[in-house]
Every structure is written in structure tokens, then in C-alpha cells.
Design goal:
heterodimer, A: about 375 residues, alpha+beta, Butyryl-Coa Dehydrogenase, subunit A, domain 1, Butyryl-CoA Dehydrogenase, subunit A, domain 2, Butyryl-CoA Dehydrogenase, subunit A, domain 3, four-stranded mixed sheet, four-stranded antiparallel sheet, 8 strands, globular, B: about 375 residues, 3 domains, 13 helices, 10 strands, about 50% helix
């Protein structure tokens, strides 16, 4: 499978990216976690080296590479545990909205900045009262001549503090209707009148990832900031959520792999130092169970990445992968922490941060309960 | 067979819940957690009302209750808030070694000050990298006492405790020849340094304590020389039960919050508690918590009867700590995005719960001890 996905140039790209991470990101990451934000300069460095939106065509400033390159970036960042620089959200979740549904002018105007890191992206769907149930969003956008006037509040938005452009899901229909046909996607740029940022929220993990509130109070944007057609937003989101779930599943899988390897390494080092194997009980069969699950997960995710690149419909399987792998990552991290004894609970150990970080995976990008709802509908249960 | 509490036990439970509801401010709990601060004023009040050291006899400042009553208080406190609950439950950590094995003088000196909130006590027993062989921390006999050398790790409350019980190797020819000593206040040659931030249990500092030729008078030794290993094992049984109760409380608190949230939170036009997926989760959480509670009470009951059921004790710790983890995990999940945010008032339960699976011994070591029990040898 991996031979189908990755050729020699991919391997070289991966090596170069790993080297970039160890030079430009990893050494500063602890500091950024403390500060609760990634410096903009780090995003620009990612952009300068071609690690943001590498799939964007040269015409729009990109390198025109395949999606596999994005997967390599996502995977390596998860292996390194540097989720906070949410390149995958920017490159593979939000930018595709502009790319797929934007017109030529919009693409020309925004995509080059997405590639360079000058424009950091966010997508705003969730509201205080609309999480899993997307169709119940209340943020409205009303046409007023050549503008939209947006009112509403979004919450738990990744990149909320840094974003220069936010793709906002708004109701463009009239009244209190909750039809799927009332939702539109409108781009709100930093500096638009009436657009402000709320709090950068404190959370279990992902401390350097700015997750916050966005407030639209008679926010005025040009009507030309609409992506695609009015009223099609819900369907656009459904279409793009497939890739979002694939990326989420991949992050979980990679985390499970990294956490497992790291913990086994730690255990072996400790065992060799103590020269007392019999004194360090280890549930080897339980660890083998996990290693097996991880291997099964890897086969599954590689297959999904390949099929997705080839354009297949992977909705059912990717929904399965998203819930199963985020669950796997949590199981693995929690169980592996025991190999560290009490030390695993200390923040100085990467496993502790993994423990806090991976708890987000079963929640974001559609909760695991929503994944199961989708699957049960497909199975007609 | 009688599953009823005595009226005294019901009163204690009620009083503890009332106190916790009144004094454990939700936002203050988040602040203590964030700032890694021991909840000093709440602890003082809990002591004033007699909730700490309830299992000490009245002569030593307690209420003359059993371990079950102490466990009930820990459960209720953890139910109200995992962080504050753990902090209060560990404020007398190790004092039972004095209670069970100390001299009259030691008991009179230390226990009342702990129960009255004059000082915290802790136990230094762990060493980094230590697994089974001789302890690296030694106590060498001198003409009027002992000299302690070595370093202890993962000492809870190390930097703020007034009294510290230290487990030392007193003879090198026998791995289990340990003795325990009470150290009060500061000593020349004793150094305390933080082991850094933790992912949970953040109100309790965890420190490294090193001893360099620290002299202790002979009268500070607890019980007979070289019996420290036995004292520690006995204390572990007692502490495992209290830890189980903490786990039951954390699980119950998390599931109460999840239940209330799921009644309030509406998606797809109705409260999420009406969805099968949430209902099934809540049922599992209830069942697991109740099972953990039953084995915990059974263990506590057997301890108070004077014949601790070692299997029940080990099972309680394993089951309750795992339950706390699983139930808090699901409680976070039911809260959705809010579950991951500090202000959702549930995620710290999840971080705190994980500590119980590592505290005293990890699940695997517990399983090994249980396997020894089941196989019929004493480990």
C-alpha cells in the first residue's frame, strides 16, 4: 500500500520536512505551549519552505503537488506532537473550500497568501447552541446592496486568534427556518467592520493552538466574499468534511504509533538500566493487542488515503476510521502511560502532553457519536 | 449481609456533601488547578469541622470513626470536585502509619495537629528507578538516633508538609529491612525541589526530597526497627481503599455533571439525553460506578472488621481507578466541545482521574499482586 502512495520523492520530502520540524518548530514548541499561541513567523516559515497548501496549483502560488504531500506533513507533525501549528486545518480543511467553491478572482486573491502563510485560515461552523447539529446555526448574513451584514457568534474555532480569513457558515435564508438550504459560506477578512475576536479559550491540551470565539456584530463584508452559491453551504461542508475526517483519522493513527513506539523505547531503556526484568511487570500480551490494532489502523488509513486521492467515495469508511482511530489513540496513550510509572503523569514527559492532546480527537471534526450516526444511516440501521 | 449505612454514616455523608457544596467554589477550583495551589482555606475549614482524620480516635483529635467513614468523606468531596477532593484526601497522607504503629508520644504530637489543620503530613516512599531491590535512601544508626541519606521522589505535598514520614533502608543484608521515621519541620541537609508540572492533581505539589546526613532522634522512628516494609504494606491497603473511594467519587461527580448537561443541551431539536447513544453511555457509566462503589465499600468494611480482604482491596483500587478514568472520559465526550474546555468544568475531572491509575502502583503491578493472591502465594 505504502509503495502505491509514496515514491522516492515523497521519501525525500518527508526527510526534509522532519529536518525542518526539528530545526524550526520542535525546539520552540514548549514555549509556544506556555504562551498559548504559535507565532505568526512560524507559520510564515512553514509557508516559505512550501509546507502550507503544497497541493495548490502554481497559478495560485502553490507547488501543485499531490495530496500525499499534505498527508506526510500531517503525519510528521503528529509524530512530533506539534499539533498546535495546525497546518492541516489550514491547508487541507479550510483552503479546499476556497479552492473548490471560490471563483477565479477569489482564488487569485487569497490562495497565494494561504501558501505563503500571510493569510492564516479558519473555518467557523460551531456556535454555542449548534455543535453536532450544524443545520441549527443562528449566525445570519443579510444582503444589503453590495454587502452582507453578518450577525452571530462562533465558538471553539481553531486559529481564531491568528486567522486573517475566516470561512463563516451563515444563514442566508429568512426567519427561523432550519432548512439545510439556508446555509451559505462567506469569507470574512481580518479588519472587516463589525468582526472581532473573543477569548482564546483554555483547554485540556493543544495549548499552543488558539481555539476561541469569533463575534460578528453587524459585520459588513462585500457580497463578492460569498463562496460558491448562496444556500449551498451545507452541501459544501458535507462534501469537504470527508477530507477533514480523513486528516483527523490520520492524526490519531500517527499519534497512536508515536506514543506506542516512544513508550516501548522508554520501557526498554529502563529495563536495561535496572537489570531487573522480573521486577518490572509488563502485560506483554496487552501490548501486543495494541500493536496489532495499530497495524490494522495503519493498513486502513493508508488504504483510505489512496482511495481518497483516487477520488473514491470513502464516506462510510472514513467515518469509521475517524471514530475508531481517535479512540485507539486515547486507549494507546492512556495505557502506555503506565509504562512510565508515576513519571508519565509529569508534564516533562511527552506522554503526558499526548494524553491531554489526544482527548480532543474524539470530539473535533464531528464527534464520534456523530460519526456513528452517519454510519448507522448508511447501514440503514 | 446488610447494605444499610448506620445513621451516623448517613449523617457524615450528608454533612460532607453539604460542606462540599457550600465551600467548593467551582471557579475557585479551576484557579487552584491552574495555579497549582493547595486549597489552604478550604482544608482549614474541613479540619475545623472534623472531616480530616475522622478515623483517628478522639484522644488524637479525630472522631473515632472507621476507614469506611473516612472513605465516604473522600468520595463525597471528590464527587463535588476532583481536585479539591484529592487535595483534602491526601492532606493526611501516611498519618495512618503513625496511627497504627506510632508511639503514644508520636500520636499525640502529630495526629491532632493534622486533624486540626495545623499542619499537613506526608509520606516519602518512592524512589526514581527503584524497583524491588534495596532502597537507596538509608538510615544509619548513630549514638542517639539515625542519619538519613538518599533521595525520595514523587513526594506529595513535599514542599508544604509540616511532617514527613520517610521510609529508609536500615539493613543492607535484607531487602525488606526498612524503617520509618518522622521528620518535622526543616532540617539541615534536607532539600526539597519540585518535580515540575503535572497533567492533573495539580493542587498537590509533587516533589523530590533529598537527604544529606540528616540526623533524626531515635524516638522519631515509627514502631520497631526494620518493620517499615510491613507498616508500608499495611498502610497501602488502607490507602488503596481511600483511593478507591476517591475514584468512585470522581466517577459519580463526572456522571452527575454529564447527566445534568445532557438534560440541558439540545441538538437536533431535543435534549441530547433523549438520544440512544447518550442514554447508553450514561447507563454504562452508572453501572460501572456502582460496581466500583460496591467493591470499595466491601473492602472498607472488611478493613474496619479487622480482617482486610486483600483481594477486595486490590480489586477495589484497580476497578475504581479504571472506572474513574472511563467515566470521566465519557463525561467529557458527552459535553462535546465544552468537555475539552476548562470552563466546561469537567475536563479537570478527567485529568485528575488518571492520577489514580498510577498512584501507589500502576494497574499492571496491581494485577500482578492480584495474580499472586489468586495463585495462592503472597508475592
Amino acid at each position: 500500500m505504502r509503495e502505491l502512495l509514496y515514491k522516492e520523492e515523497h521519501v525525500r520530502f518527508r526527510e526534509a520536512f522532519k529536518e525542518f520540524l526539528s530545526r524550526e518548530i520542535i525546539p520552540f514548541y514548549d514555549q509556544w505551549e506556555k504562551e498559548g499561541i504559535i507565532p505568526r513567523a512560524a507559520w510564515n516559515k512553514m509557508g516559505d519552505h512550501g509546507y502550507l497548501c503544497p497541493w495548490v496549483e502554481e497559478e495560485f502560488g502553490g507547488a501543485g503537488l499531490g495530496l500525499e504531500y499534505s498527508f506526510i506533513i500531517t503525519e510528521e507533525m503528529a509524530y512530533a506532537g506539534v499539533y498546535g501549528v495546525m497546518a492541516s486545518l489550514h491547508s487541507d480543511i479550510v483552503a479546499p473550500y476556497i479552492h473548490a467553491f471560490g471563483n477565479y478572482e477569489q482564488k487569485k486573491r487569497w490562495l497565494p497568501g494561504c501558501v505563503s502563510g500571510d493569510i492564516i485560515l479558519a473555518v467557523a461552523m460551531t456556535e454555542p447552541d449548534a455543535g453536532s447539529d450544524l443545520s441549527s446555526i443562528r449566525t445570519t448574513a443579510v444582503k444589503d446592496g453590495e454587502s452582507y451584514i453578518i450577525n452571530g457568534e462562533k465558538v471553539f474555532i481553531s486559529n481564531a486568534m491568528l486567522a486573517n480569513l475566516v470561512v463563516v457558515a451563515c444563514k442566508t435564508g429568512v426567519g427561523e427556518s432550519t432548512s439545510h438550504k439556508d446555509i451559505s459560506l462567506i469569507c470574512v477578512e481580518e479588519g472587516s467592520p463589525g468582526f472581532s475576536r473573543g477569548r482564546n479559550l483554555e483547554k485540556t491540551g493543544w495549548h499552543s493552538q488558539d481555539t476561541g470565539e469569533l463575534i460578528f456584530s453587524d459585520c459588513q463584508v462585500p457580497a463578492s466574499n460569498l463562496l460558491g452559491e448562496e444556500g449551498e453551504g451545507f452541501y459544501y461542508m458535507m462534501e469537504k468534511l470527508q477530507q477533514e475526517r480523513l486528516v483527523s483519522a490520520l492524526m490519531s493513527q500517527a499519534t497512536a504509533e508515536a506514543a506506542f513506539d516512544m513508550s516501548i523505547d522508554y520501557h526498554k531503556k529502563r529495563r536495561n538500566l535496572s537489570h531487573a526484568q522480573e521486577e518490572m511487570p509488563i502485560d506483554s500480551a496487552g501490548l501486543v493487542d495494541m500493536a496489532t490494532d495499530i497495524e490494522i489502523g495503519r493498513t486502513f488509513i493508508d488504504c483510505l488515503m489512496y482511495d481518497h486521492i483516487m477520488g473514491s467515495d470513502i464516506l462510510k469508511r472514513v467515518s469509521m476510521a475517524k471514530w475508531w482511530m481517535s479512540d485507539l489513540a486515547n486507549r494507546v496513550v492512556s495505557r502506555c502511560m503506565e509504562l512510565y510509572g508515576d513519571s508519565g503523569y509529569l508534564e516533562d514527559f511527552q506522554i503526558a502532553r499526548y494524553f491531554r492532546d489526544v482527548r480532543a480527537h474524539p470530539i473535533y471534526a464531528g464527534t464520534n457519536e456523530i460519526m456513528k450516526r452517519i454510519i448507522s444511516r448508511i447501514l440503514d440501521l | 449481609m446488610d447494605f444499610e449505612f448506620t445513621s451516623e454514616q448517613i449523617d457524615i455523608q450528608k454533612a460532607a456533601l453539604e460542606f462540599a457544596k457550600g465551600e467548593f467554589d467551582q471557579d475557585a477550583a479551576l484557579e487552584y488547578d491552574k495555579n497549582q495551589q493547595f486549597p489552604q482555606s478550604i482544608w482549614k475549614k474541613a479540619c475545623e469541622l472534623g472531616f480530616v482524620g475522622v478515623h483517628y480516635p478522639e484522644t488524637y483529635g479525630g472522631q473515632g470513626c472507621g476507614l469506611l467513614e473516612n472513605a465516604l468523606i473522600a468520595e463525597v468531596f471528590c464527587q463535588q470536585d476532583s481536585g479539591i477532593g484529592i487535595a483534602l484526601a491526601l492532606s493526611d497522607f501516611g498519618s495512618e502509619m503513625i496511627l497504627r504503629h506510632g508511639s503514644e508520644h508520636q500520636k499525640k504530637r502529630v495526629l491532632p495537629s493534622v486533624s486540626q489543620g495545623k499542619g499537613l503530613v506526608t509520606l516519602a516512599f518512592l524512589e526514581e528507578g527503584h524497583c524491588g531491590a534495596l532502597l537507596a535512601t538509608t538510615a544509619r544508626k548513630t549514638h542517639d538516633g539515625f542519619t538519613i541519606n538518599g533521595t525520595k521522589s514523587f513526594v506529595t505535598l513535599g514542599s508544604i508538609a509540616n511532617a514527613m514520614i520517610v521510609v529508609c533502608q536500615t539493613r543492607l543484608d535484607s531487602p525488606h529491612a526498612h524503617s520509618t521515621f518522622i521528620l518535622e519541620g526543616t532540617h539541615n541537609g534536607m532539600e526539597v525541589s519540585s518535580m515540575g508540572e503535572k497533567l492533573g492533581m495539580r493542587m498537590i505539589p509533587v516533589d523530590r526530597v533529598s537527604f544529606s546526613n540528616v540526623g533524626v532522634p531515635g524516638e522519631n522512628a515509627i514502631g520497631h526497627e526494620d518493620t517499615g516494609f510491613h507498616q508500608l504494606q499495611e498502610f497501602f491497603d488502607e490507602m488503596r481503599i481511600e483511593t478507591s473511594a476517591m475514584g468512585v467519587g470522581i466517577a459519580q461527580g463526572a456522571l452527575n455533571r454529564a447527566r445534568e448537561y445532557s438534560k440541558k443541551r439540545e441538538q437536533f431539536g431535543k435534549a441530547i439525553i433523549s438520544f440512544d447513544v447518550i442514554r447508553n453511555k450514561l447507563v454504562d457509566m452508572y453501572m460501572e460506578t456502582e460496581m466500583a462503589r460496591l467493591i470499595t465499600y466491601k473492602a472498607a468494611w472488611s478493613f474496619d472488621k479487622g480482617k482486610p480482604d486483600s483481594r477486595a482491596v486490590l480489586m477495589a483500587k484497580a476497578i475504581a481507578s479504571k472506572t474513574a478514568y472511563r467515566v470521566t472520559y465519557e463525561a467529557v465526550q458527552i459535553h462535546g466541545g465544552y468537555g475539552y474546555m476548562t470552563e466546561g468544568h469537567i475536563e479537570h475531572f478527567y485529568r485528575d482521574a488518571k492520577a489514580l491509575e498510577l498512584f501507589l502502583e500502576t494497574g499492571q503491578i496491581q494485577k500482578n499482586l492480584l495474580a499472586d493472591q489468586i495463585a495462592g502465594r503472597k508475592g
